[in-house]
Specification:
By secondary structure, the chain is an alpha+beta fold. 34% of the residues lie in helices and 38% in strands. A hairpin with a 5-residue loop joins strand 8 and strand 9.
Length: 296
């Protein structure tokens, strides 16, 4: 999501009266969003060509391989295609940002290899982000517990157990994460946890299929989670995963630069069209629609 909006912002920034070689300028601008790029091709379709100078483009297509948004984090394949773009170029030239003059649809295909995901999970920056997400669960879960009827919270114990797990993980260091893409579209995660004070270690093992109900709501299929050999109930796993996914969405949007950080999920139409794990690769096909009037 973050990469998609950053790329879109970069593309719109090149629709300026001083940029006549739009294809090459767009490619150069997109390359600047990544630490490293193995292959990248950008095509701006527009008839007549001078429409781009006026802020109108029929379609922009991007095909990239081996993209590194951060050091040690590799995206195997990224394909990106827009609907017609219509922006106010005069405002863009003056303020370096502009409003969409019409709704904008964007399609994206993302492929991540198993080995690249393992490398990413072991990188310091991803481990720091995971820890930050887990810390953030504390506030959101305490609000959820207050909002639930006392009988429901007492009966399930789910909010408290999520808080307990979050507190435990805050006191531990994540070591040696490993991911396997299994037959049947399932994903297995294994990780060691080391207690900061005593250096004592224990293991977490998780396995599940993943689907997106109605293209939006993350759902785990036959999930399994063992915490130091103790298997936790499925209801707890589903609640923890939902909280983590919701927190992840907020973190992704709030970390965008400038005015983009003010974008809310309620302003967007986002759908996962395909989520598939096969041949040691994870493939995600998604569609995003941005509303008219949104500043980018």
């Amino acid at each position: 999501m973050q990469i998609l909006i950053l790329i879109l912002s970069s593309l719109i920034s090149v629709l300026s009266p001083v940029n006549f070689g739009v294809d090459k300028v767009a490619e150069s601008t997109i390359r600047g969003q990544f630490k490293k790029v193995e292959q990248l091709k950008v095509r701006v379709d527009n008839t007549p060509v001078h429409n781009a100078i006026g802020g109108k483009v029929d379609k922009i297509r991007i095909a990239g391989r081996g993209l590194f948004p951060l050091e040690g984090i590799r995206i195997d394949t990224l394909e990106f295609e827009t609907d017609p773009i219509n922006v106010n170029v005069k405002a863009l030239r003056k303020e370096k940002k502009t409003e969409l003059q019409a709704p904008l649809g964007v399609g994206m295909r993302l492929v991540i290899r198993e080995e690249d995901l393992i490398s990413a999970l072991r990188s310091p920056i991803v481990q720091q982000e995971i820890q930050k997400l887990l810390r953030g669960l504390g506030n959101s879960n305490s609000k959820q517990a207050q909002a639930e009827p006392s009988g429901e919270a007492d009966r399930t114990g789910i909010p408290q157990r999520i808080q307990d797990l979050r507190t435990k993980l805050d006191e531990y260091r994540i070591l040696n994460p490993n991911v396997e893409f299994l037959p049947g579209g399932r994903i297995r995660l294994q990780v060691e946890i080391e207690e900061v004070k005593t250096a004592q270690k224990f293991k977490i093992e998780a396995e599940s299929g993943i689907t997106f109900a109605e293209g939006q709501r993350l759902t785990l299929t036959r999930p399994m989670l063992k915490l130091n050999g103790e298997e936790l109930p499925e209801q707890f796993i589903q609640a923890f995963a939902t909280n983590l996914f919701n927190r992840f969405k907020l973190e992704q949007l709030s970390s965008l630069p400038g005015g983009l950080g003010q974008v809310k999920w309620s302003q967007l139409t986002a759908r996962v069209i395909r989520f598939q794990v096969k041949d040691k690769k994870l493939e995600l096909v998604a569609f995003l629609r941005l509303p008219q009037g949104l500043k980018i």
